[in-house]
Amino acid sequence: MSASSSERPIPRLAGVCGWPIHHSLSPILHSYWLKEMGLLGAYVPFAVSPKTAIEAFRSLKQTSISGVNVTLPLKGAAFKAADVATEEAQRLGVANCLYKSRGQLVAHNTDLEGFAAPLIAKRGVSRLQNGSALVVGAGGASRAVLGALLSMGVPEICLINRTDTKAEDLVSQVHVPSLYALPWAQRQEAVLRADLIVNASAAGMSGKPDLDLSLEGGREGALVYDLIYTPRVTSLMKAAMKNGMETLGGLEMLIAQARPSFKLFFGQAPLTELNPSEILFEALRTGHR
Q: How confident is the prediction for the chain on average, in pLDDT?
């Protein structure tokens, strides 16, 4: 039974903001869900200069855009531009999602959920609570990783970064007994006792040098979780497989963090059976963004 024109829902517009933004897979991901679920709406990329980002984000309240995802290097500006922030955004001090609610611009962060969901599906919380984790990197992605691991009760978390002081500073900010930093020079020692190794740095991304970390001597059956998704299988993941370790790629996190954003923007959660992995893999393979 078709609805009359007066009853038809108004199409919703959302998007993703970054600088640059042409590489983002988010429009492909959200457009797939919109099409498969038969929802009226569109999700498009917006190039936003860091110099004018706060002003641009605040202007969202004067538009018909329901919300935007925010990627590098604009997550800090998105947090500052908002009228209010959710608990998740406050914990990290950055926002990867802005949406409108009751006339206010709300800063939110879905990276915690995005990182945790694939990890829990792969490992289970009880196993994580009985092991140790090694996190590489001390930027915004690392904050989300640490927040998720701490909330899951991982008893020992070691943080390393190529610049030692950045890792030390982040540890002092978080200030919990289970989290400590090791010097970059001792990174191989950290690998030996880790049940979970997370690459939250940009090392290994297409066009950037590989992560200078050997997995030799690491625990057999340990899980290597690389948050990078270009390329689909990173050098670190290949090394993990050679050393009898399990792997998780960044595409799983991209999809998991997009699910709650989609619900905020379009009013419905993506159906769990709608898995966009193959479409995204094909986009990566062909170089189409």
A: 93
Lowest mean pLDDT among 68-72, 98-102, 174-178, 229-233: 229-233
| Residues 184, 157 contacting (CB under 8 angstroms) | no
Active site residues: 75
Whether residue 195 is predicted with pLDDT greater than 70 in this model: the reply is yes
Mean pLDDT within 55-69: 96
Report the distance separating Cα 56 and Cα 21, nearest Å: 15
HEC states along the chain?
A: CCCCHHHCCCCEEEEEEECCCCCCCHHHHHHHHHHHHCCCEEEEEEECCHHHHHHHHHHHHHCCEEEEEECCCCHHHHHHHCCEECHHHHHHCCCCEEEEECCEEEEECCHHHHHHHHHHHHHCHHHHCCCEEEEECCCHHHHHHHHHHHHCCCCEEEEECCCHHHHHHHHHHHCCCCEEECCHHHHHHHHHCCCEEEECCCCCCCCCCCCCCCCCCCCCCCEEEECCCCCCCCHHHHHHHHCCCEEECHHHHHHHHHHHHHHHHHCCCCCCCCCCHHHHHHHHHHCCC
Class of domain 5-109+257-286: alpha beta
Q: What fold, for 112-248?
A: Rossmann fold (3.40.50)
Tokens of 246: 């399990």
Better-predicted residue by pLDDT, 281 or 129: 129
Give residue 1's pLDDT band: very low, low, confident or very high (50, 70, 90): very low
- Position 29 scores a pLDDT of 96
What is residue 288's predicted lDDT score, i.e. its pLDDT? 59
Q: Where in the chain do CATH 3.40.50.720 domains reside?
A: 112-248
Residue 270 preceded by cis peptide, ω within 30: no
The number of angstroms, rounded, from the C-alpha of 239 to the middle of its chain's C-alpha atoms is 23
